[in-house]
Amino acid sequence: MFDWFASLIVYQTLGLSEDSAWGSALHFFVMDTTLIFFLLVVVIYVMGLLRALMSPERVRAYVRGKPPWLARTLAITLGGVTPFCSCSSVPLFIGFVEAGVPLGVTFSFLIASPMINEIAVVLLAGILGWEMALMYVAAGVVVAWVGGIVMQAFRPERWVEDYVWKIQMGESQPAPVDKSWRGRNRFAIAEVKEIVGRIWKWVVIGIAVGAAFHGFVPGDWVTTYLGEQGNWWAVPGAVLIGIPLYANATGIIPVAEAMLGKGAAVGTTLAFMMSVAALSLPELLILRKVIRWPGLALFAGVLAVAFVLVGWSFNLLT
Amino acid sequence: MKKVQVLGTGCAKCKSTVELLNDVAESEGVSVDVQKGEDIAEIMSMGVMSTPGVVIDGTLVHSGSMPARAQVVEWLKD
After folding, report:
1. How confident is the model at residue A137 (pLDDT cuts 50, 70, 90)?
2. Per the CB < 8 Å rule, is A170 touching B45?
3. Chain A interface mutation, best of B49, B61, B63, B73, highest count of A Cβ atoms under 10 Å
4. How many domains does chain A fold into?
5. Using CB atoms within 10 A as the burial measure, which of A32, A78, A134, B11 is most buried?
């Protein structure tokens, strides 16, 4: 349906040829814009109806006092269904520390939360198929799990700002939530407005980049450098390029779509997606309020290495 | 006069929440004193991890999202 609509606009109304670079780029843009925003609104609305269910405060309560393996499993799983706004990462970090949650588990949560979320999963499944969605989630879980454990091994406590240890968190009873369907509906609509309002720019930029890639980058170039027969340095290269680039997990999906469509290898594409979505400079700068530079540099380094290893493994396996 | 505090470290939603509270107070004719609580220790001491949080006369009534207008009217009424 979205394909049909995009063809109608681009090929029939505007009269562009299907074979021209502009025609195929514009077709990609129109189709992805309509499809992605449609999926976004539906997913966020449905999750909004259910969501009143998970908040960082509740994650903290679940994870608190559990043995490390269980705490980490919960942190990663719950991280996937907890709406995460990077502006909340500081109170979240302090709240976890105050609850005595090991830092390694908190890092696992901080890795998993922005990378794995229901919106990205549904979009990936809708656009690239279930296989790719599963691989992305599996890769994200592995990186979050291993990343947290490696961080722990470096004793990151020494890099946490002193004031963090002194904060006493009050036990407030959670604010009452309106559980009626009317209340949920209102909440869901507010969520759609809030989340779409926050991420639409990233999504449009992502689609535009994907469209340009789709229309103008020659297929031969992609298969030579990013394809399965590509060089070993394609994966680290993709990760390095992804670090300064920032987009949320949703915005990177159309870029991945264009890369895969042109024959880029799955592992290289996954590594690039994770690097853009989970490792970003703005995020690190926000965390600077609670962790000193050496800790942040280590965090970025551990993540980058993990992405490269995941990328190589997927390239070998597929 | 109600003492209202909006807890948050300067995110966009926190600013809009402050505006919403002032706006509702004005249209409902309630006198309020809306303050922003940006100190992280203070925010945490109220038990808030997801911002913005809204505290009215010392009690936390909301956290984690921008409140709906109807909710705000309710809080400021009595």
Report:
1. very high
2. yes
3. B49
4. 1
5. A32
